[in-house]
Amino acid sequence: MERTLVLLKPDAVKRGLTGNIISRFENVGLKIIGMKMVWADEEFARKHYREELDERYKEVEKKFGRNVRNELVKYLKEGPIVAFVLEGIDAIKVTRKIIGSTYPNESAVGTIRGDFAHISKDFANTKNIMVKNLIHASEDKANADIEIPLWFANKELHSYKTVHDIICFE
Fold first, then answer.
1. 22, 30, 37, 159: which could form a disulfide with 86 (CB 3.0–4.6 Å)?
2. Which one, of 136, 139, 100, lies nearest residue 116 by Cα?
3. Residue 82's pLDDT is what?
4. What does pLDDT average to over the chain?
5. What is the reported pTM?
6. What pLDDT score was predicted for residue 60?
7. Rounded to whole angstroms, how far apart are CA atoms 143 and 27?
């Protein structure tokens, strides 16, 4: 079974979308094995948006003169976050498919970002603001292996059988 980290960012929590979003993962049979609400401080947000990710933001920073990592850290600190770990077959791929494109206006209808947000990167860049896209999920196994232990201790992750497990795997 594969595991992935999902964060409902402060805009999702403030808009009261947590139940709607969480149910989408449960509906496809992904299992929540750990969940909590956290309000990230500066140090913790910087650990999540770690320095080795800076390379991917260089083009935006060069074009618009903005420090993307600082903006992401600020965004993560804006309010409480609901963090959870999902487990299932191809959990990372399935989760990212449910979430949709990083940029909500590019996300298909039926995805979380496609249904609950619409801001584009072009609009955000012209207004010099962050694209608020509701949710984060580990992009691959390597990132999941870094992110899950950052957010959850082993004792906070649980093993149990769901009806889906029993129907599909026994």
1. 30
2. 100
3. 98
4. 90
5. 0.90
6. 60
7. 24
End-to-end Cα separation, the chain, in angstroms: 14
For position 92, which CATH number holds? 3.30.70.141
Q: Do 28 and 96 contact (CB within 8 A), yes or no?
A: no
Segment 73-130, tens digit of pLDDT = 999 999 999 999 999 999 999 999 999 998 888 899 999 999 998 887 788 777 877 7
From 118, 136, 158, 164, active-site residue: 136
Amino acid at 105: N
Active site residue 48: no
> Contact, 18 vs 6, CB < 8 A?
no
Tokens of 148: 């899950």
Rounded distance between C-alpha atoms, residue 53 and residue 22, angstroms: 27
Spatial separation of the C-alpha atoms in residues 53 and 76, rounded to whole Å: 15
To which H or E segment does residue 83 belong? strand 81-88
Number of domains composing the chain: 1
Which range of residues forms the domain containing residue 130? 2-169
Helix H or strand E segment including 2: strand 2-8
Does residue 16 have a pLDDT over 90? yes
> Other C-beta atoms within 10 Å of 43: how many?
8
